[in-house]
Specification:
alpha/beta, seven-stranded parallel beta sheet, 8 helices, 28% helix, Rossmann fold, five-stranded parallel beta sheet
């Protein structure tokens, strides 16, 4: 039977959606295997989030609640996750494939000398306790099947918005055990002095269920107001192509693509984006892709579920008006 440890990522004192998605994936594997799901929550003032983890499928929660841990510390967090994994003899450790997860996951795997698979879009446990994972490679142009050669201390990061959450069970309860922080913060090789938060949009790009992105076809930065208006009526996040970012129309935090952020929303609307392979690498796993471009031969149409060949300055305002009518009704 597997013991799956989930690192529950949070932001500003609230669990991130990817934490519940990762917990859901763990719960499905543990249920099929007859195993146990354990969560580890690290930070300051997070005890209230234990209930949400229990409702999401965690049977036991290890809580490292310390004001010194309120700001993410790569070394300190890795030490805690590794210590908990060894204590419970974890078979598999799961994290979200976020900026934090991509930093923390490999460090934990290295500390435990375990197998590692990153940015997984599919994962399952085999009868012998090892895992089989699928993950995009070469900028999303191919899918690799990764087989673990170890049956313990395996680590994987899961791509956000790919795995469904576990249906919340409001009656569920979990045992909460506090973890004493053994880390000597004065001995850390790196110390976080300041965190500068850049709010790119009302909805965080990597967690957004709907994303509206703009590209070179907008012709000028002023026209991004059109993208923002469409995003506003949809309750969506705003993204940008590399061309738009390189032109200085939007900060790098908006960029979707190989050198930007990888997203997997339910709906991705690409406005004036040709869809070069670098951009596709960051959004091709979206559930539904809508492309608006006046070039019928644009590469984006090859992966789009719905394509509109036309002038985005005519199409987008029509979409906004129709969406407002539907929402008004």
């Amino acid at each position: 039977m597997a013991t799956i440890l989930v690192y529950a990522e949070h932001l500003n004192g609230k669990l991130k959606r990817v934490a519940l998605e990762t917990l859901g994936a763990a719960k499905r594997m543990a249920t099929a295997d007859g195993g146990q799901v354990v969560a580890v929550l690290i930070g300051g003032g997070l005890s209230d989030q234990a209930k949400a983890l229990a409702e999401g499928g965690a049977q036991k929660i290890y809580l490292a609640d310390d004001p010194k841990l309120a700001v993410y510390s790569s070394e300190a967090y890795a030490n805690i996750v590794a210590d908990v994994a060894k204590k419970i003899n974890a078979t598999l450790i799961l994290l979200g494939a976020t900026a934090m997860g991509k930093d923390l996951g490999p460090k934990v795997a290295a500390k435990l000398e375990g197998a590692f698979a990153g940015d997984c879009t599919g994962i399952e446990l085999k009868d012998d306790g090892t895992f089989v994972a699928t993950r995009p490679i070469y900028g999303g142009k191919a899918i690799a099947t990764v087989l673990s050669q170890k049956s313990n201390l395996q680590v994987a990061t899961l791509r956000p918005n790919v795995f469904p959450t576990h249906p919340p069970d409001t009656a569920a309860k979990a045992v909460v055990e506090k973890v004493e922080t053994k880390t000597d913060f004065t001995a850390l090789k790196a110390l976080v002095k300041e965190v500068v938060s850049v709010v790119a949009s009302k909805v965080e790009l990597t967690e957004a269920q709907i994303i509206v992105s703009g590209g070179r076809g907008l012709k000028s930065p002023e026209h991004f107001k059109l993208i923002e208006e469409l995003a506003d009526v949809l309750g969506a996040a705003v993204g940008a192509s590399r061309a738009a970012v390189d032109a200085g129309w939007k900060p790098h935090s908006y960029q979707v693509g190989l050198t930007g952020k990888t997203v997997s929303p339910l709906l991705y609307i690409a406005c004036g984006i040709s869809g070069a392979i670098q951009h596709q690498a960051g959004m091709s796993s979206s559930k539904c892709i809508v492309a608006i471009n006046n070039d019928p031969n644009a590469p984006i149409f090859k992966i789009a579920n719905y394509g509109i060949v036309g002038d985005l300055f005519e199409v987008v305002p029509l979409m906004i008006d129709e969406i407002k009518k539907v929402k008004g009704a």
